[in-house]
């Protein structure tokens, strides 16, 4: 969208002036003042709506881009966890799970000792990812 900056500034000045002195005026009074200032109210409103839509879409794209970047980073970091613990003993895995987990997680997995090593490795990988994600959201580097 190409913008005639001079025309845009004139419109914005007229709008802010009209809105600044609009106490006690009707919408029609304000539109008439803007027309008296040489502003085509219909096209000005249409341009403002298009600008608002463009800004809104850009903000949404930016949020989606940030979410995508975060997801990619989590996936890449997650790959570091997958298979990382296959050489660990069951005792080492259990110690790390206890280190990462609070009482709620320990209650959820009360029977860890009865599980196969592969199952507790999977739990540890999930906890590592959750721990990393929490650190990332808190603004630390996740290490």
Q: Determine the structural class based on helices, strands and strand pairing.
A: mainly alpha
Rounded to an integer in angstroms, the radius of gyration calculated over CA atoms is 29 Å
**What is the CA-CA span between the terminal residues?**
45 Å
Percent of residues in helices: over 70%
Shape: rod-shaped
Q: Low-confidence stretches at least 5 residues in length (pLDDT < 50)?
A: none
- Can you count the helices? 6
Q: What is the mean predicted local confidence, pLDDT?
A: 78
SSE series: HHHHHH
Largest sheet: none
- Total E-strand runs: 0
Number of domains: 2
Strand content: under 5%
Task: Describe it.
By secondary structure, this protein is an all-alpha fold. The chain has 2 domains: 1-65; 82-143, no CATH class. The protein contains 6 helices and no strands. It has helices at 5-20, 27-36, 41-81, 90-100, 103-108, 117-137. Helix 3 (41-81) runs antiparallel to helix 6 and helix 4 packs parallel to helix 6. The radius of gyration is 29 Å and the shape is rod-shaped.
């Amino acid at each position: 969208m190409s913008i005639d900056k001079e025309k845009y500034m004139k419109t914005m000045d007229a709008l802010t002036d009209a809105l600044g002195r609009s106490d006690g005026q009707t919408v029609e009074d304000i539109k008439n003042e803007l027309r008296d200032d040489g502003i085509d109210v219909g096209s000005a409103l249409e341009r403002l709506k298009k600008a608002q839509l463009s800004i809104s879409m850009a903000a949404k794209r930016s949020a989606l881009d940030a979410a995508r970047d975060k997801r990619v980073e989590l996936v890449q970091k997650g790959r570091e966890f997958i298979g990382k613990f296959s050489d660990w003993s069951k005792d080492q895995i259990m110690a790390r799970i206890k280190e990462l987990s609070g009482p709620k997680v320990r209650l959820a997995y009360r029977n860890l000792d009865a599980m196969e090593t592969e199952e507790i490795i999977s739990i540890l990988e999930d906890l590592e990812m959750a721990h990393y994600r929490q650190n990332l959201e808190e603004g630390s580097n996740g290490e």
